[in-house]
Amino acid sequence: ASPTSCSQRQTCSSVLDAIGLAWALEFLLCLDGGLFAAIRDLCLRCGRHIDGIIFRDAGADSVAGVSPRAPALVQVAPTILTHLPGMLVVFKPPGWEVDGHASLRGVGAEGHDGRLGLSSFLQSRFDRGACPLCYWSSFDFGFLHRLDIPSSGLVLVGSTMEGYWSLRLQLNTYRLAREYVVVCQGLVPGQLSKISLGIGSAASMVGKSIVDECGRPAETHVKVLVHLSFPWSC
Questions:
Q1: What is the DSSP letter of 205?
Q2: What does DSSP assign to residue 8?
């Protein structure tokens, strides 16, 4: 069962508060190794505690995700590249949505809206006892981050609470880096190495992010690999 009891909710809240503290201190360059180790130990111990309850009650009901039908253009299935205790690395092809709690809000009465959720792939590979988070929309089915539907790439997944919180702490304190290959239209200066702009939410597009000077702080390191040009004819 998902962590719904009062004590389990309090445990989850305490861990998230600790991870939030670690993020804030790391952002201010004030997180020393001893405090990080203490917060990491708290995350792992609390994760193991909740995992023990989960596996003890493995037969109880879980919060199931949506398993929408595949779009006609989707031909490539996801792949599990790495399977470690409590953690997965999944390759997401184009056309699949890294779904979660927010993406379920607009799902209609039919049970799907035509998008192919990555959680349905994981649920087809693991039962609730082996990968409980893959069935919990409240924890975004264990997904640590998002990729746009048209894009492809690697997605980190926590399959247990211990694994999820271990990855979440590392991601929120910049121990894990995300690398993208991007094709841009327009000339990018070859000397560009860093973009420091805030990220905000678009008022007219739910769930979409835009560059916003008043948004959440963000820093992206860039390496310009090549400039391409093509002859155009009218």
A1: S
A2: H
